[in-house]
């Protein structure tokens, strides 16, 4: 690099290592599958779409089973708490009836419904500082 040049290298998000033993498998946990029509999102930002009339039961079950391992909110709570920034009303139905964001180094996977999920250890998408902080490397040429 020429003298006086500064190079900044960054990423669009942070990462968390989630080894296989720290993955919560929805397909192996009947309580997490009850009343669920569809899973969306990714392992550290799960959108759960409930069967008609089951959203309240799904929310309660996910909160109970995941406990301290995840922040679990209804769509309305997540929008009100600013999880997605400003959300236009026409976009709200795209958000899951229930949204779950791991609070530590966990991932929420579905080994039967999503068998092709990449076997990567590094994951992102939750609300933890490690997920939210963007890495930056600065190099200066003298």
Q: What are its keywords?
A:
single chain, 142 residues, alpha+beta, 10 strands
Architecture overview:
- A hairpin with a 2-residue loop joins strand 4 and strand 5.
- 18% of the residues lie in helices and 30% in strands.
- The protein has 142 residues and is an alpha+beta fold.
- The protein starts with 5 loop residues before the first strand and ends with a strand.
- The protein contains four helices and ten strands, in the order E-E-E-H-E-E-H-E-H-E-E-E-H-E.
- The model has no long low-confidence stretch (mean pLDDT 89).
Write out the strand line-up for the largest beta sheet, numbering strands in chain order: 4-5-7-6
Q: Please state the average pLDDT score.
A: 89
Order of helices and strands: EEEHEEHEHEEEHE
**How far is the N terminus from the C terminus?**
9 Å
Low-confidence parts, pLDDT < 50 over ≥5 residues? none
Please give the radius of gyration in angstroms: 18 Å
Global morphology = elongated
Largest sheet: 4 strands, antiparallel
Structure classification:
alpha+beta
Strand content: 25-35%
State the helical fraction: 10-25%
Q: Total helix count? A: 4
Count the E strands: 10
Briefly summarize what is shown.
The protein is of the alpha+beta class and 142 residues long.
